[in-house]
C-alpha cells in the first residue's frame, strides 16, 4: 500500500515550495494538483470560453486530456500531448482556474486522475481538497496557512524578484477573492480536514515548516 501525505491550504501559503522539499527528503513523488486545474483553465482560455459558461466548460472537459510527467524531478503538466507547464503560472490562468474549479465536471475529472496517481506511488499531494476529498485516508494531513498579509508580501517579493511590476494591495485583493471562492464553493470547498494538523507559517521560514512537517510524519509513521 502506498503512503500518502495531503497538504491543503489557501493560495500563497507556500504549499508547493514546502511539499517539493519534503518530497525530495522523504523520496516521495510530489503532485501539484493546482497545476492540473490551471492546465484545464488554460485550455478554456485558449478556447475563449467564459468562466460563467458552465454548460460549455462541462462539455469541453472531455476534450482536454490532462496527464503529468516528471522532468529532472519536476512535475510537468501535459495538455492534449503538449507540455503546458511554462504557460500556466500567470495570474490570468490562476484566476480562471479558481473560477472554473467550482464546476463538478472539472473536479470529477481531475480528482479521478489524482486518486489514480496516489494509488500507484507514495505521494505528497497539495491542493485545496486533498485531505477532505481526494485522499481521505492519507496517513498524514497538513493544513498549511499564513495571514493574508504575509501571503501577499511573499507573492509580491517573488514577482519583484522576477522583475514583474506589481502592486501589493492588488495582490492581496486577488488572494482574498481567490480564498473566498475556494472556501465558499458548493463542491469540496477548501477547509481543514478534521484529522489534519494546522500549521501557520506566518512566522516561520521554509526550513522551519519543512522540519515541522517531517516531525509530524515521524510521529504518525
Ligand atoms: O494552488 P494553485 O494556486 O495553483 O491553484 C489554482 C486554483 O485551482 C485554486 O485557486 C483553486 O481554485 C483550484 N484548486 C482546487 N483544488 C485543488 C487545487 C487547486 O480547486 N486541489
Give a structural overview.
By secondary structure, this protein is an alpha/beta fold. The protein is globular and about 50 Å long. The mean pLDDT is 95. The strands form 2 sheets. The protein has a 5-stranded parallel beta sheet, sandwiched between helices. The chain has a 3-stranded antiparallel beta sheet with strand order 3-4-5, covered by helices on one side. It is built from 9 helices and 8 strands. Bound molecules: cytidine-5'-monophosphate. Cytidine-5'-monophosphate binds at residues 11, 33-34, 37-38, 94, 97-98, 101, 127-129, 178, 182.
Computed over alpha carbons, the radius of gyration is 17 Å
In spatial order, strands of the major sheet run 2-6-1-7-8
Helix content: 40-55%
Instruction: Classify the beta-strand content into a percent band.
Output: 15-25%
Q: Give the ordered list of helices and strands.
A: EHEHHEEEHHEHEHHEH
What is the molecular shape? Answer: globular
Q: Helix count, per DSSP? A: 9
Report the end-to-end length measured between terminal Cα atoms.
Answer: 14 Å
Number of strands: 8
State the low-pLDDT regions, or none.
Answer: none
Biggest sheet descriptor:
5 strands, parallel
Structural class call reads alpha/beta
Determine the mean pLDDT: 95
Spell out the blueprint of helices and strands.
Layout: E1 4-8, H1 15-26, E2 29-32, H2 33-46, H3 54-60, E3 66-71, E4 74-79, E5 82-83, H4 91-100, H5 104-120, E6 123-127, H6 130-134, E7 140-145, H7 148-161, H8 168-184, E8 197-200, H9 206-220
Parallel strand pairs: 1-6, 1-7, 2-6, 7-8
Antiparallel strand pairs: 3-4, 4-5
Helix pairs in contact: 1-9, 2-4, 2-5, 7-8
Bound molecules: cytidine-5'-monophosphate.
Residues 11, 33-34, 37-38, 94, 97-98, 101, 127-129, 178, 182 line the site of cytidine-5'-monophosphate.
